[in-house]
């Protein structure tokens, strides 16, 4: 098949094939690298675990000098890695030993799922409320005309003036 310029579409097919080969090569390389990156290290797990000394920092960033809790958790992580356990298993073992509060991010299941859902839900509700309020402010009233000037009965006005004079207010 020839195009407008008279050249065949073979070059388009070749470019498409080359792009597909390049993409699959890059994807394969990234998957291989991802498998390497998944090997747990004390540093990677230490960033996902809170120190239990009370400093409210990840184990790797505990500001306490000579923190025995930090050393104990890091030793536990090292032992688990030397046993060939995966990161997920090590985190489960840590949460069994120290409780769920040792994890920097609670697992997204059970009651802890609310920690993941409620902030987003609150944001959506808040934004919806703001949109509704702004629309009401910007909408013009349907049929609101100014009130007609008040007309009073002259007899009533005369009676009021007489009353004010007698009370000394006028």
Question: Can you give a write-up of this model?
Answer:
With 170 residues, this protein is mainly α. The chain has a domain at 42-102. It contains six helices and no strands. The chain is elongated, with a radius of gyration of 37 Å. The termini are far apart.
State the helicity in percent bands: 55-70%
Give a count of the beta strands, DSSP E runs of length 2 or more.
0
Number of helices: 6
* Coarse shape: elongated
Class computed from helices, strands and strand pairing: mainly alpha
The span between the termini is 105 Å
Q: What amount of the residues lies in strands?
A: under 5%
Radius of gyration: 37 Å
Mean pLDDT across all amino acids:
81
Order of helices and strands: HHHHHH
Largest sheet: none
Instruction: Outline the low-pLDDT stretches.
Output: none
Please describe the topology of this protein.
Elements lengths: L9 H28 L4 H5 L21 H15 L4 H12 L14 H26 L15 H14 L3
Short account of what is shown:
This protein has 170 residues and is mainly α.
List descriptors.
single chain; 170 residues; mainly alpha; 6 helices; 59% helix; elongated
């Amino acid at each position: 098949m020839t195009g407008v310029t008279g050249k065949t579409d073979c070059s388009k097919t070749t470019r498409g094939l080359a792009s597909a080969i390049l993409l699959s090569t890059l994807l394969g390389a990234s998957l291989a690298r991802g498998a390497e990156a998944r090997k747990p290290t004390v540093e990677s797990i230490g960033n996902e675990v809170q120190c239990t000394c009370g400093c409210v920092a990840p184990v790797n960033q505990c500001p306490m000098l000579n923190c025995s809790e930090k050393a104990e958790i890091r030793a536990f992580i090292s032992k688990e890695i030397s046993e060939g356990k995966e990161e997920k298993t090590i985190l489960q073992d840590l949460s069994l030993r120290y409780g769920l509060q040792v994890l920097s991010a609670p697992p997204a299941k059970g009651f802890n799922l609310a920690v993941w859902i409620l902030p987003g839900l609150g944001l959506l509700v808040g934004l919806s409320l703001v949109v509704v309020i702004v629309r009401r402010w910007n909408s013009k009233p349907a049929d609101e005309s100014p009130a007609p000037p008040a007309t009073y009965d002259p007899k009533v006005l005369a009676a009021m003036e007489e009353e004010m004079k007698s009370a000394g207010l006028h």
